[in-house]
Structures are given as C-alpha cells and as structure tokens.
C-alpha cells in the first residue's frame, strides 16, 4: 500500500490535506510504502502525476528517488520524501497521485497509488471610494461614499482579473482570489479626478 501526505502549511507535521500559504510555493510530500506480503519486493518505480521526476527533497531524507531499486522487506515499510511546486490556478486546490510499482523475485509486478490534496486559502480585495470634497486624499466627516465608480483589478504582472462598479454606498469587493500581489485601477466619473 501507499499513503501520500504533505506538509503544505510547513508546521513539520504531515497529513492528507493541508493548506499552503499561497500558490507557487514548494511543498514537501511524504510517501509511506508498505509491503503487506511476507516476501521481499523491489521498488521499480515511484511517480507522481503532477510533480515530475526525479522525486527528491531539499529538506528531508531519504528522497523517493533514492528508493528506486531498494528492497522493501516482507511485512515492512519504507518512508521517503519529495518536493513539488504547487500550482493551483485557476482552481483552489491541487489533488495529485503518487504511484509505486514493486516487483517480486519471480518478476511479478504490483502497483499502488494514493492521493494528497494541497489547498490555497483565498483572499479578497475591497474598500471604499468616496467623494473627497476637500481634495486632501483622506476621508473626512461628511464625505460620502461614491456609487458607480468603475474599479479594475489586475495581477502584479498587469494581467486583467475583473471589473466592477462601487455599490450605492461606494464599496467594492473582489473575493475568492488566490493570495498574490494585485493592483487596482479606478475610473472616475466625468468631472471628477482621483486624489492622493
């Protein structure tokens, strides 16, 4: 059998489902490979459908790559580690599968697989647009929210994400966003300018 876990939250503990701080981070995965038969077998292959070989870890040993060709004792187990970069966009989670192939001394093969899930917490960007009547860039008492101002959201690399208009009281909110750097562009109504 194979059990695949991860330490996406980087607390040193491994579990089947963990949350990474953001997209694009390196996560350490752990495989526990068990031999449920009394005879020794040889590990012929270890693969992951999301993270390419070689399956190595910069922070934990032994790496899964190092177990290729190793003998897995009868009724025994081996543990190995590998790192993978999480890429969940445009989804909120990555579910990946590790597969191990073993061979007995008569060249019969068997394989086992298990999945592990890494999620990325979502974030939001929002605030208030107001009529800055005295032009000082601060919301002072008596300065109301400004409705129907077009707000555009972009990733830091200038990729457009979404647009919306402020509500009746001047608020806007972009939600369910992957944690990363964003910037906003405001389109003031005719006759108005942005103050800073």
Structure description:
The protein has 196 residues and is an all-beta fold. Helices cover 0% and strands 46% of the residues. The strands form four sheets. Strands 2-8-7-4-5 form a five-stranded mixed beta sheet, with no helix packed on it. Strands 1-3-6 form a three-stranded antiparallel beta sheet, with no helix packed on it. The chain has a three-stranded antiparallel beta sheet with strand order 11-10-13, with no helix packed on it. Strand 7 and strand 8 (109-120) form a beta hairpin.
Labels describing this entry:
5-stranded mixed beta sheet, 3-stranded antiparallel beta sheet, mainly beta, 196 residues
Q: Which runs of at least 5 residues are low in confidence (pLDDT < 50)?
A: none
Counting helices, strands and paired strands, the structural category is mainly beta
List the secondary-structure elements in sequence, H or E: EEEEEEEEEEEEE
Biggest sheet details = 5 strands, mixed
Portion in helices: under 10%
The amount of beta strand, in percent, is over 45%
Individual helix count = 0
* Lateral strand order in the biggest sheet: 2-8-7-4-5
The N- to C-terminal Cα distance equals 61 Å
Tell me the overall shape: rod-shaped
Rg result: 26 Å
